[in-house]
Design a protein that fits this description.
- It is a single chain.
- A hairpin with a 2-residue loop joins strand 4 and strand 5.
- The chain is built from 17 helices and 18 strands.
- The chain has 2 domains: 2-166 and 313-376, D-Maltodextrin-Binding Protein, domain 2 (3-Layer(aba) Sandwich), CATH 3.40.190.10; 170-310 and 388-428, Periplasmic binding protein-like II (D-Maltodextrin-Binding Protein, domain 2, 3-Layer(aba) Sandwich).
- The protein has 431 residues and is an alpha/beta fold.
- The strands form 6 sheets. The protein has a 5-stranded mixed beta sheet with strand order 2-1-3-17-6. It has a 5-stranded mixed beta sheet with strand order 11-8-12-7-13, with helices on both faces.
- The radius of gyration is 23 Å and the shape is globular.
- The chain has helices at 2-23, 66-79, 95-104, 120-125, 134-143, 146-151, 184-194, 205-215, 239-253, 279-286, 324-338, 340-350, 357-360, 363-366, 369-378, 389-403, 412-428, and strands at 55-61, 86-92, 112-116, 153-154, 157-158, 161-164, 170-174, 197-199, 219-223, 229-234, 257-258, 269-274, 290-293, 297-300, 303-306, 310-311, 314-318, 382-383.
- It is 44% helix and 17% strand.
- The longest helix has 22 residues, at 2-23.
Length: 431
């Protein structure tokens, strides 16, 4: 009950803040950039104040990004002396950890924080994110790729600033072993012939969708503006689902298969399905034979499919504030930390792949092997939406059963029954 009171209190504060900002004169332009009051026109003027006040802005970013973020904050306040009454306190907090911490205690949480887009619905429901309207909504919508913009929304409302479009997976491989990375069957044959290992984490709900989305299965949930799950579109219990499950079973039977997705934990490695965060480790592991490619195709019962999967994004959220000046400074700072120049600088410093369209067009970004492979793969993926926490546990169980050879001798009808049970369980979370 105490937690619910805190959430309701924060939502009330947010509503009061909106009322205050909207009531401000247009000449003062102190809102979130939204003057929908009596018309359908959305202002694209950047909101400003004569006096922003002073204080401390707490920021949570990944450990690797702390120093970079401090430098960019220093630049921001130097360029905006009218906002220099604020100082920043930057704390290392991973994108997954940040969401959990914010939900536990929004009031004590960061004013600006990075998080993975699959946490968006939970954060909205907890009242931990300031909705972006007017100028800032337009900034997000026009500056970033479509997947990143969609990832920042719940319903039709934008709640965050995208900062990366690189949270997906593709293939790292040793080109002295894998001669043609275009087919899974060819990769497996090369690995088996060389006595080397192929790694893919098939008991992960994130990587597992590479099979099911490839064959045409759906795994979608709808949410309302509070983040509550209101419906689902799940088609795993289908001939397409059976084909995907059979592909997982076939892969797990290979002597070269190892379940995993971390280069540092891999042994005797020749190929791995992994992400850009492991680029340096993969280069070190493969040396001169380092290579990257989109995920391959696979064939089941004579039909060939292109591996698909989730595309993911990192977002920057702003917590609702009770002080008008601090709210506007936080919004302006979050915009700066997510604009084209900062995203390109972040790529050069940390190799995080930009979501900003201008930064994506930079030659340094386009020539990066890992990001180039990811860009090719993202053409076949589905932006990761919001999923019930139970889904991830259920997907792990399904993958564990595949790895344990539980389904090896089952008929198609028996596999269909497995998927019918799985689908019914996932649908139950949105009733």
């Amino acid at each position: 009950m105490k937690k619910m009171k805190k959430v309701l209190s924060l939502l009330l504060v947010m509503a009061m803040t909106f009322a205050c900002l909207t009531a401000c004169s247009k000449s003062n332009n102190a809102g979130n950039g939204n003057d929908k009051g009596g018309s359908s026109t959305v202002s694209t003027e950047k909101p400003t104040l004569a006096d922003y006040g002073s204080g401390t802005i707490k920021i949570w970013v990944a450990d690797a990004a702390v120093e970079f973020t401090q430098q960019k904050c220093d630049e921001f306040f130097k360029a905006n002396p009218d906002m220099a009454g604020y100082k920043v306190e930057i704390q290392p907090t991973g994108e997954g950890e940040a969401a959990g911490n914010m939900i536990t205690d929004v009031q004590a949480g960061a004013d600006i924080f990075g998080f993975a887009q699959d946490q968006l619905a939970r954060l909205v429901a907890a009242g931990a994110l300031m909705p972006l309207t007017g100028y800032y909504e337009n900034f997000v919508a026009t500056s970033n790729d479509a997947g990143a913009v969609g990832a920042a929304k719940v319903g039709d409302t934008v709640y965050a600033f995208p900062i990366t479009s690189d949270n997906g997976y593709f293939l790292y491989y040793d080109k002295s072993v894998v001669k043609d990375p275009s087919t899974l069957e060819g990769i497996i044959a090369d690995c088996e012939a060389a006595g080397k290992n192929f790694y893919m984490e098939i008991n992960s709900g994130w990587y597992q969708t590479a099979f099911f989305f490839a064959t045409g299965c759906k795994l979608e949930y709808t949410t309302d503006d509070t983040g509550a799950f209101t419906g689902s579109n799940i088609t795993y219990a289908s001939k397409e689902g059976v084909a995907a499950l059979k592909a997982m079973i076939n892969l797990a039977k290979s002597s070269s298969f190892q379940n995993g997705s971390s280069v540092d934990k891999a042994t005797n490695l020749a190929a791995i399905v992994d992400g850009t965060w492991d680029a340096s480790a993969a280069q070190a592991a493969f040396g001169d034979n380092y290579a990257c490619a989109k995920l391959p195709t696979f064939t089941v019962d004579g039909q060939t499919y292109q591996f698909s999967g989730f595309g993911g994004f990192k977002l920057l959220g702003v917590k609702p504030q009770t002080e008008q000046g601090k709210q506007l400074v936080c919004l302006a700072l979050a915009e700066y930390l997510s604009n084209a120049e900062t995203q390109l600088a972040r790529f050069k410093a940390l190799e995080w792949g930009p979501s900003n369209l201008t930064a994506q067009a930079d030659e340094a970004v386009k020539s990066n092997p890992a990001l180039a492979a990811l860009a090719q793969q993202l053409a076949f993926t589905i932006p990761q939406g919001n999923y019930p926490g139970e889904y991830w546990t259920d997907a792990t169980s399904l993958g564990d059963d595949v790895i344990a050879d539980k389904f090896d001798n089952m008929s198609d009808d028996e596999l269909m029954k497995v998927l019918q049970d799985f689908q019914a369980l996932e649908q139950s979370y949105a009733k």
